[in-house]
Specification:
about 400 residues; alpha/beta; Urease, subunit C, domain 1; TIM Barrel; 2 domains; eight-stranded mixed sheet; eight-stranded parallel sheet; binds N-(iminomethyl)-L-glutamic acid
Length: about 400
């Protein structure tokens, strides 16, 4: 669809505090600027000017803080059904088990294409209201060739970053035949899914798939041109992070249990450590120590992991607050991980920053500073979300 502003300039004017994520452009690690305007042409940032800059169209930021849009590099938005009872049981002491995924597989297989599209659309709109401008969306609740392909087909309506996750869990019809299922994922299912996918993923965990099975799945996907990412070290220590690094995956996701060798491997690679603190919250796992990983020099992302089992939230602000409160990250580090870090995890250098040449994906906060995302936990502070300079989460903050 052509933007209504195609070829015209747009200015987001009267920005009280701008986070550029480019230290050379301003103060501190986030490169902040005060009292400026952002000029946009054809969806890209062209320049940062003093407030009052002239353009064909003006958006008044009203002195608000503006940050880059959140890049949510790990979600499972395409699903049907509800697992609120499972969550309530966990809060009463029951453990989280990978096998709960099968409950959602049953509900998803039973939903029509239209139902899945409507449910996914509502979740994407909710994410936009929460300031998320880019989402990665995984399959993984279909687990047959046709159901995985249709889930990815639905996901393509909402993002270019679709991920084939056939190796999410062994479905009931393959019970006790994991190797047969892996073969199916690598052949028939991959053939059906690959035309709709940018990435390939697998769940490397006790109760899901072992390291050799995950290696086979990722290599099969990579041979078809898909980029690799991996669910690794979520529920215990294991070989997942090392495998992700070995295969040059863009991201190792979860990283809840890391030992020194895992951290060294991440630090000496381009593989991003993607933390999913809302999943640790919702499954009562311990929070990982992000400071150790940062000090080793690895790149970190924070993502919501929105899914019905382990993390049913689209609130990146909640994830940022957890990372600051419980993972030893500064507010600046957490903001950067939810923007620039997510962009690195999706190999998108044009996202996660607000500087000339970058995509004009941004969030106007009903707050004087980005710090309020953590200082005011649980409060909806997103005033407007813009993607490519166009409003996609157009709700003004209630009460203003
Ligand atoms: O990233 N760990 C595997 N997949 C999801 C959980 C899916 C579910 O429980 O339905 C995750 O946490």
């Amino acid at each position: 669809m052509t933007s209504p502003d195609a070829g015209r300039s747009v200015v987001v004017d009267d920005i009280g505090l701008l986070v550029t994520n480019e230290p050379a452009l301003g103060d501190g690690p986030l490169g902040v600027r005060r009292n400026v305007a952002l000029v946009i042409v054809d969806g890209d940032v062209i320049s940062i000017e003093p407030a009052g800059a002239i353009a064909d169209r003006r958006i008044d930021a009203g002195g608000r803080c503006v940050i880059p849009g959140f890049v949510d590099s790990h979600t499972h938005l395409v699903f049907a059904g509800d697992r609120g009872d499972e969550f309530a049981a966990r809060m009463a002491g029951a453990p989280y088990r990978a096998g709960g995924i099968r409950t959602t597989v049953d509900a998803t297989r039973g939903a029509s294409d239209d139902e899945l599209r409507t449910l996914t659309s509502a979740r994407r709109a909710e994410a936009a209201r929460a300031g998320i401008t880019t989402v990665e969306i995984k399959s993984g609740y279909g687990l047959t060739a046709s159901h995985e392909a249709r889930c990815l087909h639905v996901a393509q309506d909402f993002t270019a970053h679709t991920t084939f996750l056939g190796a999410h869990v062994v479905p009931a019809e393959f019970e006790g035949r994991t190797d047969d299922y892996v073969h199916h994922v690598c052949t028939e299912m991959l053939a059906a899914a690959a035309p709709h996918a940018r990435w390939i993923d697998a769940f490397c965990e006790v109760g899901a798939f072992d390291v050799d099975q995950c290696r086979a799945v990722l290599q099969a996907g990579m041979a078809r041109g898909l980029g690799g990412r991996l669910h690794a070290n979520q529920l215990g220590h294991g070989p997942g992070v090392q495998l992700a690094v070995e295969l040059g995956c863009a991201s190792a996701d979860h990283c809840t249990y890391l030992d020194d060798d895992d951290i060294d491997a991440l630090a000496s690679s381009d593989t991003v450590a993607t933390f999913l603190p809302a999943a640790d919250f919702s499954t009562r796992q311990p929070y990982p120590d992000a400071r150790r990983v940062l000090e080793a020099g690895a790149t970190i992302a924070i993502a919501t992991n929105c899914n019905p089992g382990s993390s049913y939230t689209t609130s990146m602000a909640f994830c940022i607050a957890l990372a600051v409160r419980d993972m030893r990250m500064t507010i600046e580090e957490a903001i950067q991980a939810a923007t620039l870090g997510g962009a690195a995890a999706l190999r998108r250098p044009d996202l996660g920053r607000l500087a000339p040449g970058a995509r004009a994906d941004l969030v106007l906060l009903d707050a004087p500073s980005y710090a309020h995302l953590v200082y005011r936990p649980g409060v909806p502070l997103v005033h407007r979300t813009l993607a490519g300079g166009v409003v996609i989460g157009g709700l003004d903050h209630v009460g203003h």
